[in-house]
Specification:
cca-adding enzyme, domain 2; 52% helix; 10% strand; binds adenosine-5'-triphosphate; binds magnesium ion
């Protein structure tokens, strides 16, 4: 497919402009501006990673990443709109309003830094750090382009496009893997996963996103090395959650993660349910929600990270509430709040869910019970709740898998929402109040809010 000029080892395969399909019109103006400015400043600069890979595959890149031999400080000098970020991996962000172009200085090998310019020669201790598991805690040793290419994760992510001569430089046989649709780690797979276990998630994500297969040597160590995921900070896991589950391939990623023993490091609760294989409603429900999420994204509809998170945990929450209510003197409502706090804090240890998503999750859960209570003015109050729509959609999906009363309840709400005021009044007339003991319990609580 692509014409190539093969050179000797250590030097890249060079693909001339006429022999590849990466055109400047596929690259954002801001990314081009950054490439030109770096070049004009006397530095090497290349588009790299997803920006090149996705265009070669005929897809639209999600973002554009640039690699350069300029140090972060030198980059900052060139751009007024530059922010230096990251500790583990120092990067420059060039900010154009909402669009951010990420610029990374070429990474070098951790073994030696003698080739580094004098101004970069700080104590190696400060620049590079490894955990006892072989994980890179800091990766700030700078190097040359070929070293940078080796430090990248997959061969298909290690292609460099120059806006100076429009050539692509391939240091790791990435073009061949693009042609063969293969995800292949650069270097020894086990070492590379130990350096950064998130690469296991990335292998799965790229395989589903790009419709590729993971090369057998790259795939093989994953189920055994999966426990290394336990060392990844929960904040980074949230970023990975978004990329895995809100980009149109949630269902495929979920299933591949489960097959590779990785799911429990994201979602311990649903992972337990899957292993036990007894709660069929839960398993059907999660598959349906994943499918729905993908459909919505692929149709360009809005999705909230909270809905899927709420769904992944729902049946475990329900099981545990039942257990607690049966084994303690707590009221159903207290059992609900106690279990919710507990399960949320267990989940937070894996994925740091920001407050702005935790609150809607709790609302969706809390409203499931409220949707069943329709007497007096209750149905009208629930209808006014800002999270009614999400909670109602959630109920419909539960109804679809469970059928019976739950499905009927969903249908009731479908009619109620659309009904005239008179019909609405008629619809709630038949409902009786709840048991007085519950009411007493509710009143005794200081203030049961849904945003605890
Ligand atoms: P996308 O942006 O579509 O998710 P991407 O390949 O551009 O895919 P980024 O996370 O934006 O992924 O990273 C940009 C590039 O940085 C990658 O293509 C890869 O070359 C390198 N990279 C990112 N994460 C790692 C990692 N954990 N280990 C090694 N290299 C990485
Ligand atoms: Mg990218």
């Amino acid at each position: 497919m692509f014409g190539k000029t093969t050179t000797t080892t250590n030097l890249p395969i060079v693909i001339d402009r006429a022999d590849h399909n990466v055109s400047r019109k596929d690259i954002s103006d801001n990314a081009l501006k950054v490439l030109y400015r770096l070049n004009k400043g006397g530095y090497e600069a290349y588009l790299v990673g997803g920006g090149v890979r996705d265009i070669l595959l005929g897809q639209h890149p999600k973002d554009f990443d640039i690699a350069t031999n300029a140090t972060p400080e030198q980059i900052k000098e060139l751009f007024r709109n530059c922010r230096l970020i990251g500790r583990r991996f120092r990067l420059a962000h060039i900010v154009f309003g909402r669009d951010i172009i990420e610029v990374a200085t070429f990474r070098g090998h951790h073994g030696s830094n003698q080739d580094q310019p004098a101004e970069q020669k700080q104590s190696k201790q400060n620049l590079s750090k490894q955990s006892v598991h072989g994980m890179l805690l800091r990766d700030n040793i700078y190097g040359s382009i070929d070293e940078d290419a080796e430090r990248r994760d997959f061969t298909i992510n290690s292609l460099y496009y120059s806006a100076r001569n429009f050539k692509i430089y391939d240091f790791a046989n990435g073009i061949t893997d693009i042609e063969n649709k293969q995800i292949r780690l650069i270097g020894d797979p086990e070492t590379r996963y130990r350096e950064d276990p998130v690469r296991m998630l990335r292998a799965i994500r790229f395989a589903t996103k790009l419709d590729m297969t993971i090369h057998k040597d790259t795939a093989k160590p994953i189920p055994t090395l999966a426990p290394l995921m336990a060392n990844i900070p929960a904040a980074r896991m949230f970023e990975e959650y978004l990329k895995l589950f809100l980009a149109g391939k949630a269902q495929a990623n979920f299933n591949l993660l489960a097959e590779n023993n990785l799911l429990e490091y994201l979602f311990p609760h649903i992972s337990q349910i899957l292993s036990a294989n007894t709660n069929t409603a839960a398993i059907k429900f999660i598959q349906r929600v994943l499918q729905n999420t993908d459909n919505r994204i692929n149709e360009g509809k809005r999705v909230t990270p909270a809905f899927l998170l709420a769904a992944v945990i729902w049946y475990s929450l329900e099981e545990k509430i039942k257990e607690l209510a049966a084994s303690s003197a707590l009221s159903p409502q207290d059992a609900f709040f106690t279990t919710m706090q507990e399960i949320m804090s267990e989940q937070q240890q894996r994925i740091a869910i920001p407050k702005r998503f935790q609150l809607p999750m709790k609302d969706i859960w809390f409203l499931q019970d409220k949707l069943a209570r329709r007497e007096g003015t209750k149905a009208f109050t629930v209808l006014e709740h800002p999270r009614f729509r999400a909670a109602y959609d959630f109920l419909l999906l539960r109804g679809e898998v469970e059928g019976g009363e739950l499905q009927a309840l969903g249908e009731w709400w479908t009619i109620f929402q659309e009904a005239s005021d008179d019909t609405k009044q008629q619809m709630v007339k038949g409902f009786k109040g709840v048991r007085s003991s519950r009411r007493r319990n509710t009143r005794r609580r200081k203030k049961p809010t849904n945003s605890e």
